[in-house]
Amino acid sequence: MFDSISQRLSELGLVLPELPRPQANYLPYKRFGNLVFLAGQTSIGQVLYQGTLSKAEDVEAGYAAARQCGVHLIAALKMACDGDLSRVQACLKVNGYVQAAAGFDSVPAVINGTSDLFVEVFGEAGTHARTAIGVSVLPRDASVEVEAVFAVREH
């Protein structure tokens, strides 16, 4: 893993946003031992990606949306680590959901936006198992939603 995750984020030109409070009865993350389960994040916020992806030209925008989802996931992970991302041991699992038209078979290429980001930020610790699923609708018409599970060191 990189010496300083904060330094790596800066090198990538990424600023972690402050996440809004959930609007329903759930948490942005849940710790269980050294595992952190991150609630699904969309790209709505700093960058707005909405609507159904249906053609090859949509993959680039979908990838950017998934990357922004990853930025939001890292922000939630930082909260779960009391502000210290150096505690991250590994990304274990990523589940990505893409609002996709029937026949849109590039869902995995879209979710690569999150997967690639995690490896860029966390190095080998960012590699993970993954599922990429096309769905008919996502909250607030988001194009992409991603959730993840990380292992972190205890205090």
Automatic annotation (TrEMBL):
InterPro entries: Endoribo_LPSP/chorism_mut-like (IPR013813), RutC-like_sf (IPR035959). Coiled coil: none annotated. Residues 8-142 form the Endoribonuclease L-PSP/chorismate mutase-like domain. It comes from the Bacteria. CDD domains: YjgF_YER057c_UK114_like_1 (cd02199). SUPFAM superfamilies: YjgF-like (SSF55298). It holds the Pfam family YjgF_endoribonc. This is RidA family protein.
